[in-house]
Write a structure and sequence with these properties.
Layout lengths: L2 E5 L4 H17 L2 E7 L9 H27 L4 E6 L3 H11 L2 E8 L4 H7 L2 H8 L4 E5 L6
Parallel strand pairs: 1-2, 1-4, 2-3, 4-5
Helix pairs in contact: 3-5
Amino acid sequence: MGDVVLGYDGSRSTRMALDVAIEQARAFGDRLVVVFADEPPGRSAGEEFREHRRALDEIGEQALADAAERAKASGVEAETLLVPERPAVALEATARSHATRLIVVGTYGEGPFKSAILGSTPHKLLHFSEVPVLCVPSTGENP
């Protein structure tokens, strides 16, 4: 038994990834670790930054609560983490700090050039993660 780590922000692609992560966790008797990670742009000081951080935390807490409820309804134990860090960094760190068997992320269908330029989370994880990464495609979605 290990953990399945899921990057989750409540978007359509991550909701689809949640379904796959729940299936994986249930099939292997794993625990699901759901991670909402985001880092506000700019400096980490000042009222504007604090307001942005509070807004992100509120969005993250709601997304995590929804994911935990879906996991529980499916009979899967879930832990939720709100991580104030870039998503790829947060998922990799979470995987290292847990007994992680698999990282699951949703994709928006970006091409390799756009992913390389913009630095998509799945693209980064596929290149740097020491844990297997399962990318769940989403068709026709804009972030």
